[in-house]
Amino acid sequence: MKETLHALRFIYGYPLRYRRAMTVATLTMLAGLLSSIAIPLVMRVAIDAGVLGGDPGLLLVIAVGVLAIGAVSATLLHLGKQLRFKVASRAVNDLRHDLFRNLLRLGPADTAEASGGRALTRLVSDAVFVRGLTNGGLLELLNQLLVTSVMYLVAMVIDVRTTLLASIPLVIVIVGHLTVQGRLHRVFVEVKGQFTNLLSGVGESLSNIGVVKSFSREGAASDRLNKINEELSARRGSMKTTYSRWEAILNVVGALPTPIALWLGGAAVVEGGLTVGSLVALTALIMMVQMSMHMVTMHANGVFRSVVIAQRLLRIVEAPSVLDIRSGTRPMPSLTGALTATALVVDIGERRVLDEVSLDVTPGEVIAFVGPTGSGKTTLLHALARLRDPQSGIVRYDGTDVREYDLESLRRQVVCLPQRQWIFEGTLADNIRFARPDATPEEVAEAAGAAGLGHFPLERTLAADAADLSAGERQRVGLARVLLVDPAILFLDNPTANLDAETEAELLDTIMRVRRGRTLIIATQQPAVTRHVDRVIALNNGAPVTPTSPAAPVPEVDPAAGDAPSARPLASAGLQEGGKTNG
Amino acid sequence: MADSATVAAPLEESEADRTLRRAARRLLPYLRPHIGWIALATLMTILNSVMTIAQMYTVMAGIGHIVMGDLDAVGRTAVNLVVLAVLDNIIRITYNVAMIRVNERLTVTLRNDLVRRLHNVQLSRHVSQASGTWVTRVLFEAERFRGYITKTGLELVQSSVWFIAFAVFLLALSPGVALPTIVVIPIMAIIAVRWTRYLKADTRRQREAWDGVVGYLNQRIDGLADIRAFGREDSVMADLEERSAGYTKVHNRLSTKRLWLTSYLGFTVHIALALLIFFGGLQIINGHPLGSGFFFDLAAGMMPMTWMLLGTNSMMASMGMAQGAALAAGTLAAFALFSKRMLNPVRDVAHQLGQASDMAVSASRILEVLDLDEEEDTGDTLPEVRGHLHVDRVSFGYADGVEVLHDVTFEARPGEHVGVVGASGAGKSTLMQLLVRFYSPTSGTIRIDGHDVSQVTRSSIRAQVLLVTQEAQLFDGTVAENIRFGRPDATDEEVVEAARAIGADEVINELSGGYQTRVGERGARLSVGERQLVALARAMVADPRVIILDEAVSSVDPARQRVVLAAIRRLLDGRTAIVVAHWLSLVEDLDRVFVLEDGRIVESGTPVELLTGESRLAELCKVQTGEITVPAGRK
User: Fold this and answer.
1) Which intervals hold domain ABC transmembrane type-1 (chain B) (predicted)?
2) Taking CB atoms and an 8 Å limit, are B620 and A481 in contact across chains?
3) A339-348 and A392-397 beta bridge pairing
4) What's the fold here for domain A325-413+489-495+517-583?
């Protein structure tokens, strides 16, 4: 219950940011809805005095009156809705932007919600849900309830007994609808989950298409997805069928007030207690109440579902940030490239990834972090580059705690290149300029040339998945981006993974050439990389870094040979200096 | 930055119409298997109109009885109304069940066809289109399009039926009252349709702007790590806000215009009501009771069921002035009571018609997938082979016409292990893909035991010649399921046996759930090395005669490299193998090696011959071991 309220507060927070506009819109619409209550009352006069009283003049007046009421009601509803539409658009944008901002803040490894297809679904279709909530949802629910109460009151004024008896079935309907909704809520969540399964299943199968084809398993792979599809469809179909069965039963109960009103009201007319016009007005009002109740259950349904959606969105919004929010605002002065880390501790989930890691780096030093997958190399890079803050411990550049600096100015001097370079649809020049949008065409061309992309036309359009770039070229795009930013400290995360020997050698050559005196730290699994560095630091699961004096170059390593030094478990005692592992 | 990954080209007006016509031809057959259910739903629609009119008529008659003071008849009317409500809801539920069935079946078939088609197209189609785009089409467009077909199509039918029924009913009651009212409805419909035409361009623009936002988000989500790394969060946010603002503008304009239509239609109900009050009331006052004459008999003839239910035939026959006035009052009341329900269908149709250009975009996206050529799989079945592979003067170029392999010739005898070495872009992967007939050579032939591979079916080649790719691609499921992917009928013992044979058994048993460990989406819960071992066990269980191995040991951490290398050696043992060796450590194991450069074989020989001489291979090895650096000036 507490969670439900929390989710509702979160999701309604967005339209309610525009409190004044929402209030005006809601009140305007309420007035519009209320004015429609006048129609049955006018009909009463038309029948009693106009038709049965034989007064054509009155009929004309009433006809004009109906038009006037219609005009007023339509105008008010129009204005209210228009205002709400605008608020809804803003609320959707606000929510989407907040979600995206949170995604930017999160480390991708920290939350499954950040994975491609899922994140997109949240940002695109889930966020749009707020539109429905703004236009309908809780506020419209309140409006409808208010209007229904007024209709009910007017009906009571006309005939208390008939109104009271006619409303008994309505109570049953409301209780019934709430029960059915509660029951179906769980199924609704399941169906949503199944859809996400289908989404990731199709994505997985299509990105693994090479394997599927190699084993001639196209049929089996599509059958597997089709099965998920069939199950999803069957579940959703049965949910809808169940709902519609209940709805039909409740509809029959909900239809009872009209005959009750007609019968009891009719008796009152015959006994002379009620005029024909009053009876018509009464029946009309009870039918309107009945319709309103239908709307109320519809909106209540929307509110129920909004909780499910809101809870999914909250997973993004409430995922803990990997950065300390109390970031400083000091612009960063020009760095020399000196870096110290003291007793860094990072936990990801339950696991301690870095355990009291300390490190001292002198300006211009080139260091390699080596160690098996999962040893914390990337996490350490992220902590040093302030892509995440450690749970405890301090990283300092030139002796100053990195958290004192404004993040944007930090990124202009410290860059950590991820393992896989992101290529978006656009020209090569666009892709390079991404790192510094104000770069001149000359600067971009120079960076591309220096990164070894001189042979590649800058204006050639790249596809989103960069199928036309080789793995080596892809890495070079990253290097060109770095050159454009020209940072004092550069971190590279496994830059030569999945490259063949020659491409690797060429790329390393370029990296060392464009380094130009920067501090460079590379996380790697490739022995070839360690030949280019001043110092190798081996990491093992969460073990502390114990830096000693700069080491001698690492001996060549052939991982293929069974007794190769690097093929041994690195640093069984935690972390060791390179070059001494085979000691 | 242009982002249009998921954006189809904007459709011009006439082109949209053409697309819709083509889509109708291609996609309407999807409705055919459900024609029975659709007919049932349509019948229910007609009955539903009859029911609404019957309810109106009953209320009308009930008020007549009240005016005449006949309380028994009023009681009967009330009971009739309950019976009608029950019937009405039986009709509705029948309609709902039929439509849920049609909708769900339609979505399933359309999606399944899209999925199947995407699995059966040539590999190059996947390379040229990001898989995210395909996923969107399979999941969202299919559903959206299904919505258009059933909603737009059936609502048009429903509303037409309703309009005719309602017009007949009103005319039957009184032409004098009916005509002004009936005239309003077509005018209303014409204005609504014209208005939605006027919205067409805006609808298209909105769709385009939306696709722009989605495409932008889609790509940025992909680049989150880089955006953070370069501290570009603010500029990306600013970009997104600008795009959102553009979309919001178009969206608000469109929804305001749509709102005008809704408001106008809401007001039209009042126009109709005012006309009825005035003309209807006037007629009664002037002594022309509603519901007399020819039209009433017509209605009686058309609605025997209503009659039967109401049992009011006798009342109609003895219609007098007093009854006439009472009925008139009832008519007015009934009309007032049912006015919304009468006019809503017209509004719905107008809205649906406004979706036409949206529908065209959806249709063109779905057709783009359904029109992809499937790989044809014709020819003889490759008989069981010994594994003699002969590549004879093979050249190949992709669709863009650039030749990437030139006149490649080599041979691998049964059981022989042949290595292919070369820089990335030399054409190694292409050559491997030709060997399993992912593509066919532009010229030259590839023969296995003398059978030209272009003359035998793909599936029979792949049953005996297996390509093991560089990335160990796994599927969400258990380790055992992933291994069994290699041969679906393998027993549990065979799965374990295969893993044991390549030395992966120990590693797998160390996983939390052993063979029943779930590997996560794309194997994400396993390390790279573990993934590779599972992939190799999968190849082992498939037990092919020839293995084409795109080796990727280098991306595994050193601790695992030994295990993976050992596994590869065991997998290759006794089979013909073509190995793309990125990492030269495997080269020494091979019987023969050739070096591929720019799509040509530049040298070949045994590893010993090549490594001891002045060869490209020796040079490459030295580059890798760091004895020499890359010669300056070489790309």
Assistant:
1) 39-358
2) no
3) antiparallel
4) Rossmann fold (3.40.50)
Q: Side by side, which strands form the sheet with A339-348?
A: A351-361, A339-348, A392-397, A400-401
| Distance, C-alpha B288 to centroid of its chain | 60
Domain A2-317 -> CATH class: mainly alpha
For A415-431, the pLDDT digits (tens) are 988 887 888 878 889 88
Contacts of B232 in chain A (CB under 8 A): 411, 434-435
Task: Using a CB–CB cutoff of 8 Å, tell me whether A5 touches chain B.
Answer: no
Which 3 state secondary structure label does DSSP give B622? Answer: helix
Q: How far is CA B578 from CA B461, B466, B610, in A?
A: 15, 10, 18
What's the rounded Cα separation, in Å, for the pair B73 and B175? 27
CB-based contact, A329 to chain B, within 8 Å: no
Helix (H) or strand (E) holding B24: helix B13-27
Domain B377-463+589-635 has CATH 3.40.50.360: no
> Is pLDDT at A396 greater than 90 in this prediction?
yes
Closest CA to B533 of B621, B601, B602, B468: B468
List chain B domain ranges: 13-370, 377-463+589-635
Q: What is the ipTM of this complex?
A: 0.76
CA distances A326 to A339, A402, A405, B338, Å, are 21, 12, 10, 62
pLDDT recorded at residue B356: 63
Residue A60 contacts B, CB cutoff 8 Å: yes
* Cβ pair A214, B104 in contact under 8 A: no
Each residue's pLDDT tens digit, A341-383: 998 998 877 778 888 888 999 999 999 998 776 778 888 998 8
Superfamily of domain B13-370: ABC transporter type 1, transmembrane domain (1.20.1560.10)
Nearest to B559 among A85, A245, A372 (CB): A372
Rounded distance between C-alpha atoms, residue A567 and residue A197, angstroms:
39
3-state secondary structure B326-394: HHHHHHHHHHHHHHHHHHHHHHHHHHHHCCHHHHHHHHHHHHHHHCCCECCCCCECCCCCCCCEEEEEE
Q: Which fold has domain A417-486?
A: Rossmann fold (3.40.50)
Q: Hey, is B627 helix, strand or coil?
A: coil
Residues A186-210, mean pLDDT to the nearest whole number: 81
